[in-house]
């Protein structure tokens, strides 16, 4: 008999893992939050308070959790350096995986992983690029496919985060892999979803500045950066990311076609409330990316669960994550070196991009 619910475990109970766990518990009708896993004592305490009363099993050891009978899938929200080993361990047991990005920062490891995944074709693996599941982006992409602006030729996308003066960001950034790998990779993935997952880079270049977080000089990163990618076939993407905005999270995208333009979130309104007074017209801005994509995280989990239960194709392929990481890694290298990086028609770099 076909299962009506998928038993899903969550690995890692930091802010992202907690959000996934609560979403599965309360907002994904076809899923059951079966188990959670974390070695962190404070996260275990959170689970005991918020999840154990709901019948959720709690583990400190990942291997013990994935050996639990009845587990169908895991959502991996652990530290990045654990992503690929935990994903491999799960798929080798036939457990489906939704892994937060990046599944790895190492292109060679990702190539090896893709070969291993081919040996387990019945086990589904998806990387968590949540913007694909935002209703605004989904609507925009559907409009592109319907021909509303003709053939898309340029994508211009921005993600600007509020300045964090607490010191937390610097310690996070040291381990993040860099601004293009950590954040712009979302805009790159959007580009692939708009222009086509099979599109290949032809050349790219990046530059950046350090406006506030001067400690970033130690690890050759920037808190404001711009990257430009030219694709084979004559299309271009332009990316801007900032870690230093004063007003909130400002994420917007323009899709420029042969006969028009589609804009998404041009003004980052938090809601539809405006205050008009002697200061002018004031409207609150979206505070953070987690607020901007609250509903998209739920949609992502629902689509992942449907793909498991109905044996449907996943909404994105691992090959797209590979292409996205290749571009992000090359942009990060260009930021560090100032070099333009070129690719042949197969999408392989002509000069070394650090792979």
From TrEMBL:
Native species: Penicillium argentinense
GO cellular component terms listed in the entry, alphabetical order: cytoplasm
Any GO molecular function: oxidoreductase activity
InterPro entries for the chain: Gfo/Idh/MocA-like_OxRdtase_N (IPR000683), GFO_IDH_MocA-like_dom (IPR055170), NAD(P)-bd_dom_sf (IPR036291)
Domain of life: Eukaryota
GO biological process, one term: NADPH regeneration
Record-given protein name: Uncharacterized protein
Signal peptide: none
UniProt family annotation: Belongs to the Gfo/Idh/MocA family.
KW Oxidoreductase (keyword) present: yes
This protein's UniProt keywords: Oxidoreductase
Location of the GFO/IDH/MocA-like oxidoreductase domain: 140-262
Limits of the Gfo/Idh/MocA-like oxidoreductase N-terminal domain: 7-129
